[in-house]
Amino acid sequence: MTSSNLDRWLFPTKTFTPDSAAYSANDVIGGALVFDLGTNTTTGQIGSSTGHGLLNKILVATDEAINGAGSLWFFTSDLATPVADNGAFALVLADYTKWVATVALNSFVTVGTNNLSYTPDINDEIHWIGTSLYVYYVPSGAPNWGVSKNIYIRLDILTQ
Fold this sequence. Notes:
mainly beta; seven-stranded antiparallel β-sheet
């Protein structure tokens, strides 16, 4: 039995604490989140020999039952004018050359004192340059984030 080309999983994660309690729709939560795709820390495998793969699943978990419906915007490098935490998300034409995908998160559910959004079966083919993806979390409503609340984001990417 031979293995297929699509046989390596990357599980890049990011945990961060928002800086502000007063977010509105279209305010970036956490600024640019850089996900290292270079080396899988579980298996030690190099990310992708071809620079592309399938974005398969996304998990966003928060503490203290906070939530924030919205989308994750993926780019190959940072925006022409990077957006800081709590800044208004805005793109210029040059940013679209770096754009990889936009994925709307599923609704959050409460588990104990935490909230999580699990978005499975995305199956978007994504391409990146280098070993990183730049991700912006942009809420569609006014999330009830507060200072010192933690957010955990995990991307499951099937690479070649």
